Amino acid sequence: MFNKRGWIRLPRNVVVGHGVLSQTAAAVEELHLAGTPLVVTSPTPRKLAAESVAEQFGGCSMVTVEEASFAEVQRVIEEAENCEAGFLVGVGGGKVIDIAKMASDELGIGFVSVPTAASHDGIVSGRGSVPEGNNRHSVAAEPPLVVVADTGIIADAPWRLTTAGCADIISNYTAVKDWELAHRLKNVEYSEYASALSRMTAEMLVDNADSIRPGLEESAWLVVKALVSSGVAMSIAGSSRPASGAEHLISHQLDRIAPGTALHGHQVGVASIVTEYLHSGSMGRWENVQEALGALGAPTTAEELGHSPEDFVEAMTTAHEIRDRYTILGDGVSEDAAIEAATVTGVI
Ligand SMILES: NC(=O)C1=CN([C@@H]2O[C@H](COP(=O)(O)OP(=O)(O)OC[C@H]3O[C@@H](n4cnc5c(N)ncnc54)[C@H](OP(=O)(O)O)[C@@H]3O)[C@@H](O)[C@H]2O)C=CC1
Ligand SMILES: O=C(CO)COP(=O)(O)O
Ligand SMILES: [Zn+2]
Q1: Is the CB of 138 within 6 Å of ligand 2?
Q2: C-alpha of residue 46 to centroid of ligand 3, in Å
Q3: Which residue from 290, 344, 348 is spatially nearest to 315, judged by alpha carbons?
Q4: Pairing state of beta strands 13-17 and 127-128?
């Protein structure tokens, strides 16, 4: 309801660092939001962070969600209406943040994002993604007013969630290439600022890949900052274009074909090896993407994702159908071409 064309809507307070969870109420207080919040969380983050956040707001109401679904968004809306919440605080991974973001958008109240994992750039963006029918991609939603990312908690989260966040950022390279292509071929609206910011974010992450290691709080810092920057690029663009191209389409198809098999970031990372090959052929740039993912310990093959070669090829050949978003996949990649690209790059 707040999405207005031409508006750049950004978080107001972004608080990142060790132990900053304890500053959640203070970061919110500055914004003079009316009323008490409803804290939205899921089972694991509840114990790790949400109970402490709720205490900061005087033991406010809390709702625990189990799955990313519209039924859960509806349940949160009802809970928020029952307790007359002034705003929502999402404490958890991407699922919780999305549910709280979409519920707050529907209710027309503020939203605060407290990510407990750096698994993708949706934790800071104005995009929400809850599967509905055949739709897996994100839609415009209420962006967070405040982001509180405690690097102590995020550094202790399962490492695969962090490598997924890194891979989501690395995929910005190919997303920007797809956006430029769509601009040239289809006159799609394009922002030089948003694409430069998105590309630079991916470059900074890759340049610092050596210092991104499990359990290191500096790594959590780097990844969170990159996710914030990517979210800002999407806000400037007013769409997910700077961070989502053909590699995301392929990942969304994989989510349909074999739901729950792999993390979003890991899928887009592997898919971006192939789409980089489609963009630049044998010039070796796909190898840079592959190396960057490998250096971080993220998957680089369909097998490591848990997907069969057949499913991966099917996702490649059908991905162009799911959204009105022109990319290097054009009007569709033939099965032969998909097998060739995925084989040359070692993805299948
Ligand atoms: N808005 C957007 O632009 C985008 C949204 N998405 C959406 O995001 C969701 C996926 O997000 P993702 O974060 O990968 O998945 P989840 O939110 O499901 O989190 C993954 C798992 O990690 C657990 N967890 C979270 N934080 C911690 C922690 N600190 N320590 C230990 N475990 C933890 C969760 O626990 P528990 O089971 O208790 O929740 C869950 O089991 C999907 O719904 C997807 O559609 C994906 C990409 C972009
Ligand atoms: O995941 C995203 C950006 O990293 C959002 O992209 P989609 O709009 O394709 O869901
Ligand atoms: Zn993504």
Answers
A1: yes
A2: 24
A3: 348
A4: unpaired
Q: What is the pLDDT of residue 2?
A: 43
pLDDT (0 to 100) of residue 215: 86
95 Cβ closer than 6 Å to some ligand 1 atom: yes
Phi-psi region of 191 (alpha: psi -120 to 50; beta: other; left: phi over 0): beta
Q: Whose CA is nearest to atom 48 of ligand 1?
A: 122
Ligand 2 pocket test: pick from 98, 170, 244 the residue with the most ligand atoms within 8 Å of its Cβ.
Answer: 244
Ligand 1 atom closest to the CA of 93, numbered from 1:
17
**Does the ipTM surpass 0.85?**
yes
Which domains does the chain show, CATH number per domain?
13-157 (3.40.50.1970), 160-344 (1.20.1090.10)
Average pLDDT of every residue of the chain = 95
- C-beta of 136 in contact with ligand 2 (< 6 A): no
The H or E element that residue 127 is part of is strand 127-128
From 95, 104, 116, select the one nearest 37 (Cα to Cα). Answer: 104
CA–CA gap between residue 44 and residue 141 (Å, rounded): 25
- DSSP SS3 for 92: strand
C-beta 121 within 6 A of ligand 2: yes
Known binding residue 279? Answer is: no
CA of 96 to the centre of ligand 3 (A): 16
Give 133: exposed, middle or buried? Use CB within 10 Å, 0-12, 13-18, 19+.
Answer: exposed
Among 215, 115, 216, smallest CA distance to 168 is for 115
Q: Which residues, 6+ apart, have CB-to-CB distance to 207 below 8 Å?
A: none
Q: Where are the alpha helices (DSSP H) in the chain?
A: 24-29, 43-45, 51-56, 70-82, 94-107, 151-156, 159-170, 172-186, 192-207, 217-237, 246-257, 264-280, 285-296, 302-305, 309-318, 335-344
Nearest ligand to residue 253 Cα: 2
- The residue ranking higher by pLDDT, 142 or 277, is 277
